[in-house]
TrEMBL record:
Keywords: Signal. It comes from the Bacteria. PROSITE patterns: PROKAR_LIPOPROTEIN. It comes from Flavobacterium omnivorum. Residues 1-21 form the signal peptide. This is YD repeat-containing protein.
């Protein structure tokens, strides 16, 4: 009888894990294959005439993004020939910048991403070509298939001025009852104690549309927007220094929808 109960328990756990993996995979596979979009995101208007272009492989995985903003002080320019590639090798994804402009080059800014069995980000490594002390490693933690924390670490070198401490960062994620991201809290940590910089991001006024950005979760530009089931239309970002508010930015916008209530991608 005990053996039967053990086998039943194991079977339930395996079925639960399999169902969760399938749920995540289905959400990603059912996301639209966006091939062209405004560089400003899912905005309701795009009067600039500029577009970002996307390409995919046979498995519907994002492989290329064409178009990026660059800063040439004091101005910012949008150039379609500055691109980002995503190359897949089993569960490792390499994300790098390149340009199709003849005779030109851009910094690769390489990022190496490790995916788990559910195709969620498990680890992200970001080298620094100028100073190895700033080689960042980000570890992603999940609960019930929702991202709950990202921990950022650096090489284990203590800072010597003004105090000896190990620098890390932690960002925690919170959700509403509809599985939509409601808030994140990003903390600077010194010897694992919250101290210094803190950033609170608040996501509000969600619609009922499917999320068109699900396939873009490997790109930092779209990461927060890709997490939720639906789409937020109000965003607030508050910066603190040792719990003293220093800056606050708030923005809101509207989307255009089709007859089924889903976002029209410009």
């Amino acid at each position: 009888m005990k053996q039967l109960l053990i086998f039943l328990t194991i079977g339930i756990l395996l079925f639960s894990c399999s169902s969760n993996d399938e749920e995540i995979e289905n959400a990603q596979n059912n996301a639209p294959l966006i091939t062209k979009m405004s560089p400003y995101g899912l905005t309701s208007e795009n009067q600039s005439g500029l577009y970002t272009y996307f390409e995919y492989d046979n498995a519907k995985r994002l492989t290329k993004k064409s178009g990026n903003f660059i800063e040439i002080n004091p101005r910012t320019f949008y150039i379609n020939e500055i691109c980002t590639s995503l190359e897949y090798d089993n569960n490792i994804v390499t994300v790098e910048n390149f340009t199709t402009l003849v005779g030109k080059s851009v910094p690769k800014e390489s990022i190496y991403i490790t995916l788990n069995k559910s195709m969620q980000i498990e680890k992200k490594e970001i080298p620094n070509g100028y100073n190895n002390s700033w080689y960042r490693k980000l570890l992603y933690y999940y609960s019930d298939n929702k991202l709950v924390e990202i921990k950022t670490t650096f090489p284990n070198t203590p800072y010597t001025f003004p105090d000896n401490y190990l620098l890390t960062f932690s960002e925690k994620f919170y959700y509403d009852s509809n599985s939509n991201l409601s808030k994140t809290e990003y903390f600077e940590q010194r010897n694992s104690i919250n101290k210094g910089e803190k950033i609170v991001r608040i996501f509000e006024n969600y619609d009922n549309s499917i999320n068109p950005l699900k396939r873009f979760y490997l790109l930092d530009q779209y990461f927060y927007g890709s997490i939720s089931k639906n789409n937020y239309t109000k965003y607030t970002e508050i910066h603190y220094d040792d719990d003293v508010e220093t800056t606050k930015h708030e923005s809101s916008w509207k989307y255009l929808y089709d007859e089924k209530g889903n976002i029209l991608v410009n």
